[in-house]
Amino acid sequence: MKVIVLLIFHHSMEILPVNFSTEHKSMLSHLYMMINKGYLAIPEKYDKLIVSLRTAQAKEYSLDKEQTSYDDLLDAFRLSLKGYNIK
Known about the structure:
By secondary structure, this protein is α+β, with helices and mostly antiparallel strands. It has a domain at 21-80. The chain has helices at 20-36, 47-55, 71-80; strands at 4-9, 14-19, 58-59, 62-63. Strands 1-2 form a two-stranded antiparallel sheet. A hairpin with a 2-residue loop joins strand 3 (58-59) and strand 4. The longest helix has 17 residues, at 20-36. The chain is globular, with a radius of gyration of 13 Å.
């Protein structure tokens, strides 16, 4: 199944297509790096996102959606970090 999501950045009003079938692994890897380096802090009120991150299961950076609670939130979170390039 091919899913394409469009990101809209308000400051430039540019629409960027994001193809999950080709970019899902790199987005999960990027999220993992951002968390491990301590760049992210998630307030407790986002409890479903926290549950999603805690239950996330992946093999070779491919998310197992059956094992992950609130997997749509995790997908949205990965997309939200797409514009941040931190080395």
